[in-house]
Amino acid sequence: VISKNKWRVYENPFEKFYGYHMQPSSESDWDFREDVIAGATADIEVINGYYNYDSSIYDRNFKDGVIYGFLFFENANIDQSQLISFRMNIEDEIVNLIEKKGIGRLIGGATGFYYSYMDFIIFDFKEFLKISKIVLNKYNFKEKGFKKFKREDKIKKFN
To answer: Which is nearest to 135 in space by CA: 95, 77, 81?
Structure first.
């Protein structure tokens, strides 16, 4: 069926990304990622679980030593036409450092009205945070940090 339909065969699940669009929250007390307009992910189940307050996929992977989470930075001072390319430049820098050490993989990213998000699967959390802080602290963001893809988990701010 795959060859008949000329579908691409993906050997690595990180090669296939899904794009998504969202209606940002109009509530005054919205949570992280509820300002998202659009994003892309290699693991739509993790994203859906986060938005639906379902941490079962997160919990199952956490038991195996894997953490799903996202870095964020406040993007109000970045030209709107540059938001995505700006985020991608930061992603590239972090990805080069973490993949070289085998401590994580980029699984997506999103752009919101107030924040930009970079999504990761992490194998060495302590080293990942160390590298991420170094990279994000190069920039003069009002707010920046990390949050696990688990709603009830606390935010780790880098400021």
So the answer is: 95
